[in-house]
Design a protein that fits this description.
With 229 residues, this protein is α/β, with parallel strands linked by helices. It is 37% helix and 16% strand. The chain contains 7 helices and 7 strands. The protein has helices at 9-12, 19-36, 64-71, 89-95, 108-119, 143-151, 200-225, and strands at residues 38-42, 53-57, 76-81, 99-101, 123-126, 155-161, 180-185. The protein has a 7-stranded mixed β-sheet with strand order 1-7-6-2-5-3-4, with helices on both faces.
Length: 229
């Protein structure tokens, strides 16, 4: 579980993530989606129109983040592994409001930045599995529960399906150009139990609730779209 970087002071600090940059990133995401693929976005209206919110996204492909940035109705600040911030990608990702996180430690700067985004009423994007995998929410890290309980922000599950399609690929590691990718947004829900507790036990219980809700959303998204991955 991430350690609290300083109580209420974290929320009062100005996040290093630029809201204007995130808005630019959203525009880039929209351009990529419409130019390279044929996204089908379902339920984006479920994202609250204002106030802090966390988007919990399954993660099986590198384009999942840009796809969500381009399909969400509000600009999104994603927590992204520090390994992605290399070469020219470092200043680029920073300029579009994304947050670098060291997954090997309790990254104080990332925690403060993420809480700052939520305290300012922004949208925080998290891949709760921590890394790319099967994208099935089978194993959640405690970070999502921590941010949801700590901030009180509602969580919106997002299923990205079709990004791992192999048939018709022209570029290794990317879905087929002009191929369809489905993005399904679920209903917002509270991860905490309403008690305001932030104990280890409370976070463990929140993680269980999150896994149940996220897995159920993914199964519903698969039935809705007819896709398995």
């Amino acid at each position: 579980m991430p350690r609290d970087p300083g109580g209420g002071e974290a929320e009062r600090q100005v996040s290093g993530a630029s809201p204007r940059g995130a808005a630019i990133g959203r525009g880039i995401g929209i351009g990529l989606m419409r130019t390279l693929w044929r996204p089908r976005v379902l339920g984006a209206w479920r994202v609250p129109a204002s106030g802090p919110v966390i988007l919990a996204v399954n993660h099986s492909h590198n384009i999942d983040g840009p796809m969500v940035m381009g399909s969400a109705p509000r600009p999104v600040h994603f927590l992204i592994k520090k390994e992605a911030f290399t070469g020219p990608l470092d200043p680029f990702l920073r300029s579009i409001g994304q947050l670098k996180v060291d997954r090997a430690v309790a990254d104080r700067a990332a925690i403060t930045g993420a809480l700052g985004v939520l305290a300012a009423g922004g949208v925080l994007g998290i891949f709760p599995e921590g890394t790319r995998g099967d994208g099935d929410f089978a194993s959640l890290r405690s970070g999502l529960a921590y941010f949801a309980v700590r901030s009180g922000a509602p969580v919106v599950p997002v299923a990205v399906l079709g990004s791992t399609e192999r048939r018709g690929r022209l570029i290794r590691g990317l879905p087929p150009l002009r191929g369809r990718v489905d993005l399904v947004f679920g209903d917002a829900f509270e991860a905490g139990d309403g008690s305001g507790r932030r104990t280890r036990k409370a976070l463990d219980e929140a993680t269980v609730r999150l896994q149940e809700r996220l897995s159920a959303h993914l199964e519903n998204a698969r039935r809705l779209t007819g896709r398995q991955a």
